[in-house]
Amino acid sequence: MRYDLAIIGAGPAGLSAALNSKVRNKSVIVFGEDSPSLVKTESIKNYLGFEDISGKELNERFKKSLKSYEITFSKEKIQTVYAMGEYFALALKSGEFIEARSTIIACGIDRKKDLINEEKFFAKGISYCATCDAALYKGKEIVVIGYNEESIEEANFVAEIVGKVSFVNMYKKDILLNPKVDLIDDEIAWGFKGKDRAEVLEFKSGREIKADGFFVIKDSSKPQRLVPSIKLIDNHIEVDRNMATNIKGLFAAGDISGKPYQIMKAVGEGQLAGLNAVRYINNIKKSSK
């Protein structure tokens, strides 16, 4: 199915973009879940119109304002965004594709630092989707470095496909793993070693573990991994005053477009991105008539 607009991220910027594009009669799909940093904030005192409000309540009010509109929401994870000319193809973790005339990236930023040599060995023994790439390691040994609930699901899944799975728990205590998975629960992943590809995971303690492949599963990917040809500045997506990126029809808003990391700034940028995406979509439709 092809939508007018796909929005990656369901935080303040993404929801603002969805609202402002939907009221202009565009078909919209939003990928993502509630912003963890927002819903965990106990008190917000600098949001205009509220003297003091919790992040959880503010988030609920954001979502309530969208309930009367027909917007599609999906918790599917986007692996890669491909610019196809007059539309974008969004590759889902499931292997399926969603098409959209325009796309807004509003997925926030990954504030966790990369492991040593993680960027160097990306796609060279290191992957961010075990479900996607597990078949490449059938009968071999892999290591999953897990930072979230999804990583547990990924480890349990690939345990039925590969030869051996070790799970480095960077998430929380008392996780439920497939009996086939070896749990490493008392180490901190530090970095990778290898020649042409990642061959060894090194822990902060100095301990090492060898494997044929490594999966790093965390909440968000670097922008350049999501959109390989995206232009960055200071590790954020570079945008102009219209929230447009260097790729025609692709916009970005919120924390991923730069500091300050503020809710009001994200909402405003989401509005701008939504309005300018609508303008772009209208021009595309006019030119195709």
Descriptive overview:
By secondary structure, the chain is α/β, with parallel strands linked by helices. It has 2 domains: 2-111 and 221-288, FAD/NAD(P)-binding domain (3-Layer(bba) Sandwich); 118-217, FAD/NAD(P)-binding domain (3-Layer(bba) Sandwich). The chain contains 7 helices and 17 strands. It has helices at 12-22, 36-39, 55-64, 130-133, 149-158, 223-226, 263-287; strands at residues 2-8, 28-31, 72-74, 78-83, 88-92, 97-105, 126-127, 141-146, 164-169, 181-184, 189-193, 200-203, 208-210, 213-217, 232-233, 236-237, 250-252. Helix 1 (12-22) packs parallel to helix 7 (263-287). The radius of gyration is 20 Å and the shape is globular.
Largest sheet: 7 strands, mixed
What's the structural domain tally?
A: 2
Low-pLDDT windows of residues: none
Note the beta-strand portion.
25-35%
Order of helices and strands: EHEHHEEEEEHEHEEEEEEHEEEH
* Mass-distribution shape: globular
Annotation, overall tally of beta strands: 17
Mean pLDDT: 93
Measured as a percent range, the helix fraction is 10-25%
Highest CATH level, the class of the largest domain: Alpha Beta
Protein name: Pyridine nucleotide-disulfide oxidoreductase
GO molecular function: oxidoreductase activity
Keywords: Flavoprotein, Oxidoreductase
Domain FAD/NAD(P)-binding: 3-270
Q: Which keywords apply here?
A:
FAD/NAD(P)-binding domain, 7 helices, 289 residues, five-stranded parallel sheet, single chain
Sum this structure up briefly.
By secondary structure, the protein is an alpha/beta fold.
Topology, element by element:
Elements: E1 2-8, H1 12-22, E2 28-31, H2 36-39, H3 55-64, E3 72-74, E4 78-83, E5 88-92, E6 97-105, E7 126-127, H4 130-133, E8 141-146, H5 149-158, E9 164-169, E10 181-184, E11 189-193, E12 200-203, E13 208-210, E14 213-217, H6 223-226, E15 232-233, E16 236-237, E17 250-252, H7 263-287
Parallel strand pairs: 1-2, 1-6, 2-3, 6-17, 7-14, 8-9, 8-14, 9-10
Antiparallel strand pairs: 4-5, 5-6, 11-12, 12-13, 15-16
Helix pairs in contact: 1-7
